[in-house]
Amino acid sequence: MDRDPNLSRRRFLGGLGGVAGAAALGGVGAADALASSTGGRAPHPKTPEETLRVLQAGNKRYRQNKVQLRDYSPVGEKRAAEQKPMAAIITCADSRISPELVFDVERGNLFVSRIAGNSIDSGTLGSTEYAVAVLGVKLVMVLGHSDCGAIKAAIANVDEGKSYPASKYGAIGQFINLITPAVKSLPADERNLARCVPANAIAQAENIAGRGPIVSAAVKAGTIQVVAGVYNIANGAVSIVR
Ligand SMILES: [Zn+2]
Questions:
Q1: What's the mean per-residue pLDDT of the chain?
Q2: Predicted TM-score of the model (pTM)
């Protein structure tokens, strides 16, 4: 994954939990060797750090047009009766994002909940809590993206006072309201799409990382990591921003 040049090294390293080093890539090399010798099957990641490396390696293959839809799930033929995803992804409803393709993994590996603007509401929170508590995912990623219409609507709300009354907009205003605090947190001259997309992804990741009783406890215990990413629709790269 590429690093967003607008973001600080501290945030980058913090999001990776200190695993950003050449030595840390050993697990991926072993998985690569096994996957290529077993028709796309690879060992299920055992730690949050390893899970993030697997997703980063998959994103690299995606960007290089070498998608293999690797399968890291341990269940094999038993998939019809159980699931064992490695990560929970909270992403936007935008039609241009396909998490399995972006991270080059077979179905069964990602537990994905979606809402326009990739925010935390009762649906995305509860779904992710289930993935952490019951399915045992090792990583939670909030994945924003370039050219996000929901973020544009939130910027218009904050900067131009545009409102989205239910009488005309139905429930659209409700998910925009979940984004506006992140937009407002930026200085007026930084309320552009390039700054607001990562700011919102980070804010939503921090939100869910602190939510009890399930996610915050798992973070504290070190059984999961919560990271934020931004998907660049133009080139397919996911930048880790938290
Ligand atoms: Zn979007």
A1: 88
A2: 0.86
